[in-house]
C-alpha cells in the first residue's frame, strides 16, 4: 500500500506504511505513534530508528520496556509492497528473545513482579552511608579498641587503623569502578564479582559470602547476648547459667530481628536509623567524658584526663602475653569490615551507580576518623595499668617511676607483679570509664551489635537470592522466589534464621570468627582482582563512570587482602581458599548456561589472539605436527561416525572444523546458515566435542569445499587434513555430482593437504532419520497443544486448576520407529544405520587396527591410527602393520619396518609383509568389477570414429577403452587389495589403507570412484589416508 504523504517517482525510495513495526506487540492492531524526530530528522518515512535507550535494555528489564530495532535484513532486503516484510514490534513482548543480549539473562523478573508501584527504594544516605557505618562500627569500637592501642601504642595503633582503612578504601575504589560500569542489580559482592569474572568465581564466592553473612548474624547476636549476661551477672539475676543465658537471649534477639526484617525493608531501615542515633550519642558521650574532670574513683582506675606525659608513655608499643603487631591487627581488622553492607542491597537502591561509591567511601572515612579519634582521646587520658584502689597513692618520701600515673600521685607499681584489672591493657570497659554517662556506652554497645546483626540478616538472604536466581546451583533454585512489592526473599530469611540459631546455640564463636573474617576478605580480594582483570582485558565494554581507580592499585589491594587473610589466621585462610577452589571446580564442571560478558572471556580472547600471532611467527616443526582436520560432515548431527572419529584424532591434540556447504544461492540459504551456525556450535559444545562449526554457501559442493580449504583457520591454526565420507551413491548420482566429489579430492592434493576418506558399509548419513524424528516430535507437540486447548474448555469439578493438568510427553528416541511409517525392511536398514553411526562413541574393546601402509606419504597413514590407540575408547586396540614387499625380501623388509617403528617410538602388535600384491585378482572379482563399471564405459572400440566423437562430446565423463588399458595394472591392484583385506583384516575394528591417487586429466572420475569402491567394499570401517608427502614423523629428539 503506497503512502499518500509522498509523491511517487521512479527515483524515490519504495513507499510503504510501517504497519507491522508500529503495532504494540499484543496483536490488537493498535499503532504506536512514530517519534516525531524520525520524520523531522530525515524528511521521509523510514524503518530506521534514532538512538534510543530502550534498544539497549536487557531481556525482562524491570526499569522499562525493551524496544526491538529493525534488523539489518529488514532494512536491506528487497522491499515487498504487499507486506512482504515481517517486522517485529518495537516493544518486545514477554516471550521475546533478542540475540543482541548475548545471553545476558541476569535478574530476569517475572511479569507479575514488574509492577514497581509501592516499591521502597533507598537513597545513598539511608541505603549506603548509614548501613555501612552501622556495620563497620561494631562491638570492637567500645570493648577492644582501647586494648589494641594499649598493646600497639599510639604510633603502631594508628598504623593498624590506617592499614585496615587502606584495605577497605582500595576495595571501595575497585567496587566503585565496577558498579559504575553499567546497571547494578541485586546481589552485592556476588553480582559485582560474577558479572566481572564470570559464574565460576561469582558462584563460589557468592555462596560462602552469603553463608558468612548468615553466621555473622549469630556472631553479632552472641556479642549482644554476652553484654546482657554481664549486666545480669552484676545484678545477680542470671536465668540459668552464663552459657545457657547467652543461648536464650540470643535466640530471643534473633527472633525479634527476624520480625523487623520480614516486616519489610522500610521497617528495617527505620530501625537502623534509630540504632544509628543511639550509637552517635554513645560516641559523643566518649568525647564529652574526656573533658569532664576525673573523679578519685576514675583516677584510681587509670583515667586522668588529657596529659602530655600519658601520651608520650602510650605512644610506644608494649606487647604482652605473646601478642605481636600482626596478632593485634588480626583482632582489630574485623572492625573495619562491613563496607559491602550497602552493595549487598544494591537491588533496593534508587541509584546504585551513584550511591555506592559516594556512600561507601564516606562511611569508610567517617568510621576511620571515629576509630582514630576515640582511640587517641582514650590513649592520652588513660594509663596502661591501674589497680582501681583509691589508696594506691604515693606515700610521702617514697619514689615512683612505674608509669606516668606517678606524676598524678598514684603508684600502680604492684601491677608489675600482680595482674591488675584496670587500665588500657586490662579493662575492656575503658569506654564506660571514660564516658560522661556509663549506661550510654552499654546502649551504644547494644546498638553496634544489633545494627550489625540486622545488616547481616538482610544481606545474607539478598545475596543468596541473587545467586539462586542465576541458577548456578540448580538445587538452590527454590530460594530464588521473592514475595511482596520489594521481592523479599522470605525463604532466604528463614534459611538465614536457621543458620544463625544453629551457631547461636554453640555460644562460643572464637573459632569460627576468623573464618568469617577470611570469607569477607576473600570477597574483597576478588572485587579488587575483578577491577584489575577488567582493566587488564581492555575490553571496549569496560567504561566505568568512576575514574578514580587504578588497575595496579586494585591488584595491590587484592594481594594485600590475601596477605591479611594469612596474618589473621593462616589455617582459616587455607580453609577459605579450599572451599572456594572446590566450588570453583564444581561450577566449572557444571558449566551453567549463562553469559555475562565477563573479563575472563575478554582475556581469553586476548590470549588466543596473542598466541595465534606468536605461532604465526614460528615455522612449523615435525615434532609439533598435530592433525588439524577440516571435516566435511554437513550438519554435525547428520554424520556422527565421521565426527566422532575425527574428534578422536584431534581432541587435546589438534584442531577440528566441522564444515557444512549449503549448495545453492546465498540469499536462499542465508537464514539457514545464520540459525545453524549458533545451533550447531551449541550442539557440539553440549556433546562435548572440541570442534568448531563452519558453514558456507556456494553454487556447488566443490566450490564451497575449495573455499573452506583456502580460507578456514587462523595463522598456524589452519587445517592440514581434509576428512570426508565415501560417496556410496556415486553409481546413481548425476555425473556432475561425481565430478564435484572427485574434484574435492583433487583440490586437497593441489593445496597439499592430507586426505582421509571414511567408509562404513552401512553408510553414515542419518539426516533423513533426524528429519523424521523432528517431524514426529512436532506432531506430538501439536497433539499436546490440541489436548490442552480442549482441556481449557472442558467443565470439571476442579475449575481453573483443571488447566494445570499436563499431558505426558513422549520422549523421542534414536529408534527409527519414531519416524514416519516405513516398510519393515527399510526400518531395519535404518536401524542398522543408526547403530553403525554411533559405533565410535562406544568403548571398542580388544581388537586390532590394521594399517596397510603401502605408500610412504610422510607418515600420516601411520600417525593417525597411533593417535587413536592413545584414546580411552581405543586403548585396548593394537596396531598391526601391513607393508608391500618382494618374496625374496620378506624377512629383511619386516626387520627394516621394525627398526623404523622403534625409531618412531610407535608400538605395534605385528608386522606383515604382503608379497603377492601383483597377482591377478580372481576371475569372479574381476567380473564383478567389470559389471560395476559397465554403465560408465564409452566402448569406443565397437563404434565408428564419428559416433565415438559425438559420444565423447555428449558424455565426456565416461570411461574409455584406452583409459582402461592404460591403467589396467592399477585397477587390478585395487581389486587384489580388497581380496587381501578380506582375507587378513575382516575381523579388525578399523582398517587404515593408503589412498590411491588419480592423476589429473588421466583418470576419469568414475574410474577413480570404481577403484575406491572395489578397494573398500564389504569391509569393516575403513579409512583411506594419504598425507601431503611431507614428514609428520621424525626419528630425532
Automatic annotation (TrEMBL):
Name of the protein this chain belongs to: Solute carrier family 12 member 1
Domain Amino acid permease/ SLC12A: 127-630
GO cellular component: apical plasma membrane
Gene Ontology biological process terms in this record: cell volume homeostasis; chloride ion homeostasis; chloride transmembrane transport; potassium ion homeostasis; potassium ion import across plasma membrane; sodium ion homeostasis; sodium ion transmembrane transport
Disordered: annotated span: 1-27, 792-817
Pfam families: AA_permease, AA_permease_N, SLC12
Source superkingdom: Eukaryota
SLC12A transporter C-terminal domain sequence ranges: 639-1037
Family of the protein in this entry: Belongs to the SLC12A transporter family.
Lineage: Eukaryota, Metazoa, Chordata, Craniata, Vertebrata
Catalyzed reaction equations: K(+)(out) + 2 chloride(out) + Na(+)(out) = K(+)(in) + 2 chloride(in) + Na(+)(in)
Any one GO molecular function term: sodium:potassium:chloride symporter activity
Source species of the chain: Danio rerio
Amino acid permease N-terminal domain segment(s): 36-94
Subcellular location: Cell membrane
Regions that span the bilayer: 124-143, 155-184, 204-225, 246-265, 271-292, 325-347, 359-383, 490-509, 515-536, 548-572
Membrane topology, record value: Multi-pass membrane protein
Matches recorded under InterPro entries: AA-permease/SLC12A_dom, AA_permease_N, SLC12_C, SLC12A1/SLC12A2, SLC12A_fam
Keywords: Cell membrane, Chloride, Glycoprotein, Ion transport, Membrane, Phosphoprotein, Potassium, Potassium transport, Sodium, Sodium transport, Symport, Transmembrane, Transmembrane helix, Transport
Amino acid at each position: 500500500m503506497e503512502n499518500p504523504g509522498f509523491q511517487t517517482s521512479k527515483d524515490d525510495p519504495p513507499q510503504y506504511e510501517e504497519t507491522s513495526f508500529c503495532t504494540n506487540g499484543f496483536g490488537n492492531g493498535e499503532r504506536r505513534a512514530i517519534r516525531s524526530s524520525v520524520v523531522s530528522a530525515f524528511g521521509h518515512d523510514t524503518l530506521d530508528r534514532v538512538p534510543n535507550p530502550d534498544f539497549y535494555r536487557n531481556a525482562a528489564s524491570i526499569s522499562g520496556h525493551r524496544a526491538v530495532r529493525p534488523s539489518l535484513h529488514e532494512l536491506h532486503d528487497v522491499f515487498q509492497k504487499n507486506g512482504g516484510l515481517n517486522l517485529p514490534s518495537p516493544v518486545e513482548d514477554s516471550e521475546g528473545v533478542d540475540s543482541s543480549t548475548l545471553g545476558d539473562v541476569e535478574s530476569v523478573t517475572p511479569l507479575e513482579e514488574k509492577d514497581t508501584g509501592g516499591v521502597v527504594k533507598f537513597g545513598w544516605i539511608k541505603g549506603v552511608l548509614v548501613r555501612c557505618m552501622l556495620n563497620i562500627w561494631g562491638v570492637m569500637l567500645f570493648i577492644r579498641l582501647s586494648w589494641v592501642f594499649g598493646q600497639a601504642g599510639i604510633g603502631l595503633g594508628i598504623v593498624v587503623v590506617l592499614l585496615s582503612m587502606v584495605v577497605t578504601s582500595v576495595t571501595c575504589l575497585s567496587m566503585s569502578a565496577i558498579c559504575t560500569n553499567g546497571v547494578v542489580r541485586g546481589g552485592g559482592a556476588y553480582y559485582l564479582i560474577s558479572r566481572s569474572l564470570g559464574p565460576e568465581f561469582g558462584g563460589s564466592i557468592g555462596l560462602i559470602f552469603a553463608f558468612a553473612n548468615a553466621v555473622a548474624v549469630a556472631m553479632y547476636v552472641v556479642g549482644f547476648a554476652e553484654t546482657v549476661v554481664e549486666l545480669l551477672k552484676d545484678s545477680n539475676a542470671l536465668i540459668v547459667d552464663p552459657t545457657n543465658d547467652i543461648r536464650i537471649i540470643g535466640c530471643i534477639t534473633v527472633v525479634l530481628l527476624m520480625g523487623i526484617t520480614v516486616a519489610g525493608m522500610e521497617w528495617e531501615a527505620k530501625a537502623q536509623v534509630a540504632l544509628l542515633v543511639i550509637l552517635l550519642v554513645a560516641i559523643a558521650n566518649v568525647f564529652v567524658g574526656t573533658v569532664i574532670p576525673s573523679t578519685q574513683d576514675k583516677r584510681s582506675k587509670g583515667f586522668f584526663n588529657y596529659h602530655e606525659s600519658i601520651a608520650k608513655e602510650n605512644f610506644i608499643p608494649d606487647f604482652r602475653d605473646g601478642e605481636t603487631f600482626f596478632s593485634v591487627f588480626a583482632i582489630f581488622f574485623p572492625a573495619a569490615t562491613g563496607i559491602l553492607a550497602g552493595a549487598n542491597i544494591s537491588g533496593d537502591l534508587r541509584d546504585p551507580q551513584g550511591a555506592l561509591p559516594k556512600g561507601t567511601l564516606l562511611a569508610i572515612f567517617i568510621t576511620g576518623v571515629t576509630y582514630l579519634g576515640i582511640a587517641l582521646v582514650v590513649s592520652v587520658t588513660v594509663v596502661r595499668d591501674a589497680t582501681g584502689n583509691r589508696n594506691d597513692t604515693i606515700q610521702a618520701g617514697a619514689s615512683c617511676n612505674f608509669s606516668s600515673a606517678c606524676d598524678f600521685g598514684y603508684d600502680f607499681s604492684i601491677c608489675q607483679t600482680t595482674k591488675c584489672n584496670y587500665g588500657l591493657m586490662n579493662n575492656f570497659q575503658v569506654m564506660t570509664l571514660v564516658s560522661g554517662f556509663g549506661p550510654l556506652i552499654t546502649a551504644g554497645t547494644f546498638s553496634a551489635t544489633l545494627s550489625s546483626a540486622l545488616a547481616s540478616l538482610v544481606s545474607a538472604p539478598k545475596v543468596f537470592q541473587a545467586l539462586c536466581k542465576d541458577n548456578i546451583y540448580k538445587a538452590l533454585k527454590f530460594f530464588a522466589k521473592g514475595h511482596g512489592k520489594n521481592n523479599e526473599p522470605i525463604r532466604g530469611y528463614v534459611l538465614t534464621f536457621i543458620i544463625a540459631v544453629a551457631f547461636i546455640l554453640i555460644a562460643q564463636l572464637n573459632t569460627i570468627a576468623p573464618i568469617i573474617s577470611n570469607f569477607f576478605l576473600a570477597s574483597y580480594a576478588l572485587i579488587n582482582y575483578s577491577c584489575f582483570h577488567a582493566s587488564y582485558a581492555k575490553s571496549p565494554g569496560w567504561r566505568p563512570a568512576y575514574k578514580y581507580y587504578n588497575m595496579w592499585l586494585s591488584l595491590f589491594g587484592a594481594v594485600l587482602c590475601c596477605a591479611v587473610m594469612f596474618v589473621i589466621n593462616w589455617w582459616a585462610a587455607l580453609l577459605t581458599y579450599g572451599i572456594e577452589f572446590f566450588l570453583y571446580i564444581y561450577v566449572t564442571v557444571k558449566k551453567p548456561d549463562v553469559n555475562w560478558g565477563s573479563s575472563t572471556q575478554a582475556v581469553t580472547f586476548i590470549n588466543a589472539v596473542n598466541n595465534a600471532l606468536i605461532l604465526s611467527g614460528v615455522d612449523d616443526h615435525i615434532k609439533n605436527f598435530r592433525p588439524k582436520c577440516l571435516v566435511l560432515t554437513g550438519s554435525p548431527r547428520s554424520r556422527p561416525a565421521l565426527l566422532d572419529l575425527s574428534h578422536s584424532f584431534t581432541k587435546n591434540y589438534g584442531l577440528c572444523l566441522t564444515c557444512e556447504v549449503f549448495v545453492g544461492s546465498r540469499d536462499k540459504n542465508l537464514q539457514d546458515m545464520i540459525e545453524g551456525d549458533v545451533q550447531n556450535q551449541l550442539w557440539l559444545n553440549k556433546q562435548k566435542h572440541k570442534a568448531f562449526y563452519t558453514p558456507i554457501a556456494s553454487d556447488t559442493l566443490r566450490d564451497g569445499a575449495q573455499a573452506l580449504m583456502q580460507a578456514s583457520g587462523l595463522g598456524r591454526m589452519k587445517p592440514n587434513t581434509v576428512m570426508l565420507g565415501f560417496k556410496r551413491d556415486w553409481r546413481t548420482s548425476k555425473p556432475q555430482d561425481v565430478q564435484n566429489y572427485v574434484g574435492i579430492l583433487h583440490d586437497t592434493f593441489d593445496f597439499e593437504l592430507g586426505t582421509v576418506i571414511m567408509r562404513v558399509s552401512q553408510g553414515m548419513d542419518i539426516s533423513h532419520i533426524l528429519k523424521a524424528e523432528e517431524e514426529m516430535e512436532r506432531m506430538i507437540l501439536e497433539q499436546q497443544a490440541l489436548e490442552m486447548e480442549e482441556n481449557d474448555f472442558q467443565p470439571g469439578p476442579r475449575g481453573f486448576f483443571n488447566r494445570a493438568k499436563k499431558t505426558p510427553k513422549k520422549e523421542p528416541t534414536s529408534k527409527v520407529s519414531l519416524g514416519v511409517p516405513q516398510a519393515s525392511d527399510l526400518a531395519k536398514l535404518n536401524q542398522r544405520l543408526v547403530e553403525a553411526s554411533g559405533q565410535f562413541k562406544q568403548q571398542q574393546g580388544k581388537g586390532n587396527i590394521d594399517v596397510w601402509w603401502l605408500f610412504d606419504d610422510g607418515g600420516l597413514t601411520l600417525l593417525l591410527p597411533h593417535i587413536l590407540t592413545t584414546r580411552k575408547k581405543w586403548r585396548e586396540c593394537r596396531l598391526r602393520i601391513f607393508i608391500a614387499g618382494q618374496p625374496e625380501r620378506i624377512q629383511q623388509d619386516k626387520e627394516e619396518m621394525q627398526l623404523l617403528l622403534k625409531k618412531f617410538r610407535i608400538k605395534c602388535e605385528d608386522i606383515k609383509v604382503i608379497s603377492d600384491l601383483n597377482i591377478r585378482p580372481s576371475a569372479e572379482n574381476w567380473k564383478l568389477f567389470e559389471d560395476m563399471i559397465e554403465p560408465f564405459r564409452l566402448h569406443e572400440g565397437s563404434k565408428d570414429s564419428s559416433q565415438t566423437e559425438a559420444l565423447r562430446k555428449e558424455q565426456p565423463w565416461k570411461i574409455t577403452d584406452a583409459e582402461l588399458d592404460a591403467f589396467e595394472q592399477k585397477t587390478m591392484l585395487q581389486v587384489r587389495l580388497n581380496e587381501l583385506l578380506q582375507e587378513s583384516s575382516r575381523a579388525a575394528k578399523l582398517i587404515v589403507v593408503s589412498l590411491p591417487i588419480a592423476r589429473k586429466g588421466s583418470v576419469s572420475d568414475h574410474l577413480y570412484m570404481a577403484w575406491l569402491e572395489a578397494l573398500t567394499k564389504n569391509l569393516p570401517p575403513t579409512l583411506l589416508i594419504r598425507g601431503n608427502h611431507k614428514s609428520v614423523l621424525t626419528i630425532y629428539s
